[in-house]
TrEMBL record:
Source taxon at top rank: Bacteria
Signal peptide residues on this chain, from the entry's feature table: none
Keyword Transport: yes
PANTHER family in the record: ABC TRANSPORTER ABCH.1 (PTHR24220:SF86), IMPORT ATP-BINDING PROTEIN (PTHR24220)
Protein name: ATP-binding protein of ABC transporter
Species lineage: Bacteria, Pseudomonadati, Bacteroidota, Cytophagia, Cytophagales
Cited CDD domains: ABC_MJ0796_LolCDE_FtsE (cd03255)
């Protein structure tokens, strides 16, 4: 089943009298359960497209359908609601709250979702357990390694049971051994049926994905199935 469909998506940024056409016409269809890597040189439009797919921004023209909802025409409030329900974000810099425990960090999206405290703690604990951090729930982020911090961020992305996991350079701040550990975890999540979309600059990281889409100058340059993706341990 189709989960993401973009039709002739364009994005133009205006800065005074100047215009930058960051996306010229993007047509992409992604099915539930796919594992996709976006690649492309700096300035090719990856962040712009990820922001649109993640419902953080809307296109200037064209349509974007996420899980059968037409999101390209939505208001800020409607977008925020779809985002909180449908998307789990993972960032290069982890974006954890430094003063909050792992459990509190992971439970955060559940506050937006309206769950009570007991249920939040229970769900957050299970999410941390699913990434192998059940013995770190009361630690603060600065008491953890980079790889562990990214696991906390992944648990936070998963806690709401989102339709898609959007990962922007998830291994960008990790050494290579830790990067492969995180990719092993992504592999596991994909095996469990999660839909994963990540941006990466690194070929060996992109090679874990089952499909690689390359952008150039605001257009899809290539869109290829990876015949033999790297698998986890
Ligand atoms: P990538 O993520 O592949 O590096 P971006 O989506 O960040 O590419 O950028 C695509 C183009 O849009 C670039 O020319 C960039 O300078 C421009 N751009 C991105 N964001 C903005 C913005 N907020 N305002 C103006 N121009 C932008
Ligand atoms: P709102 O105020 O509409 O609830 P928030 O800023 O609290 O929006 O964020 C809602 C969701 O969007 C959260 O899951 C958060 O992780 C994500 N989010 C917020 N800002 C960004 C950003 N700049 N890039 C990616 N994800 C973001």
């Amino acid at each position: 089943a189709t989960i993401i469909e973009t039709r002739n998506i364009q994005k133009t940024y205006r800065m005074g009298v100047e215009e930058v056409q960051a996306l010229k016409s993007i047509n992409i269809t992604i099915n539930r359960g796919e594992y996709v890597a976006f690649m492309g040189p700096s300035g090719s439009g990856k962040s712009t497209l990820m922001n649109i797919i993640g419902c953080l921004d809307t296109p200037t023209a064209g349509t974007y359908t996420l899980n059968q909802k037409l999101v390209s025409d939505m208001s800020e409030n409607e977008l925020a609601e779809v985002r909180n329900k449908e998307i789990g974000f993972v960032f290069q810099t982890f974006n954890l709250l430094p003063r909050a425990s792992c459990l509190e960090n992971v439970a955060l999206p559940l506050i937006y979702a309206g769950y009570g405290k007991a249920e939040r703690s229970e769900k957050a604990f299970l999410a941390l357990k699913s990434v192998g951090l059940e013995d770190r729930v009361h630690h603060k982020p600065n008491e953890l390694s980079g790889g562990q911090r990214q696991r906390v961020a992944i648990a936070r992305a998963l806690v709401n049971d989102p339709s898609i996991i959007l990962a922007d350079e998830p291994t960008g701040n990790l050494d290579s051994k830790t990067s492969y550990d995180i990719m092993d975890l992504f592999h596991e999540l994909h095996q469990k049926g999660n839909t994963i979309i990540m941006v990466t600059h690194e070929d060996d990281i992109a090679h874990y994905a089952h499909r690689v889409i390359r952008l150039r100058d605001g257009l899809v340059e290539s869109d290829n199935v990876n015949p033999s993706p790297t698998t986890g341990k």
